[in-house]
Amino acid sequence: MPLCNPYRLRRTGLMLGTAFLITLLGAPLSLPAQQLNLNALATTSSSVSSSLDPPATETEAVPLMTIASANLPDAPSSLLYQKDTPPPPVLTTNPDAVSANGNQQTKRVLGLVPNFRSVSADVKLPPMSPKEKFIVAGKDTFDYSALFVAGIQAGFAMNSKSYPEFGQGLKGYGQYYWHTLADTASENFFVGGIGPVVFKQDNRFYTLGHGSFGKRSFYAVTRVLVTRKDDGDETFNFSEVIGSGASAGFSTLWYPKQYQTWTKVGQKWLTSDLIDCFNFWWKEWWPTANKYVFHTK
User: Fold this and answer.
1) CB of 283 within 8 A of CB of 221?
2) Across 201-218, average pLDDT
3) pTM here?
4) Does the first or last residue of the chain, that is N or C, have fewer Cβ atoms within 10 Å of its Cβ?
5) Where in the chain are the domains?
6) Would you tell me how many other CB atoms lie within 10 Å of the CB of residue 258?
7) Could you report the per-residue pLDDT of 28-80, keeping only the tens digit for each?
8) Which residues have C-beta within 8 Å of that of residue 265, sequence separation ≥ 6?
């Protein structure tokens, strides 16, 4: 018998083709059949279960849910969130307001240093008008304590001979003193008055008052770069950065010509911002020190 019989080859091909068609058509048809069988099985099981168990009424189910929820303890994450989340701000028009969980900012530090632009923690005030912004800048500039502080700064500058052209003695001290006053006035009005009006920003310092030492300190020193707009949203502190730079350039008008350079302006600009970083830091911690060190309520 030959190995390659034509009849056998045709019969084998026909069988293979038939098997392929059955497989191709039978697979999708079997899926609905299996699904029907599973649905029927689930329906049967459900009917059997409902016939064995007594029906539960609403009056029986509700108390069980209430008791279960009442006996469950709070989630640890929920307790942690409540602990770390500061209380909502107190909306008020009183700049001297204090929240129940915060310490009060005083108008002066140690009864001397001006602190007019500081707001106690958890207090939110309405936006200031342009006139009010300039009034606060003027109070910072012409307060009696500002005159006293300028005298101390002038003494240190003369002792270090910051500007040898000013000389020494009473005449030299006078030169240092009025230059210091002029620098202070320029800084206060550009940063606390002109800048906040032009950029529509809040010139007040809002105390954080909550969190660790690192968190509060970081918040305070970064207020040089971050501030609030008049509508309360945070934004880049254009008033501070651009205002202090404009003040540094403007102040060259009353200094000798050799100090009217970009290098000197940049040095004064950077020094001004670093000093304000420190100012924001001690303003953040002053209410805490006033309460726990000086025992002032």
Assistant:
1) no
2) 95
3) 0.68
4) N
5) 132-292
6) 9
7) 444 444 444 445 444 444 444 444 444 444 444 444 444 444 444 444 444 44
8) 245, 248, 249, 252
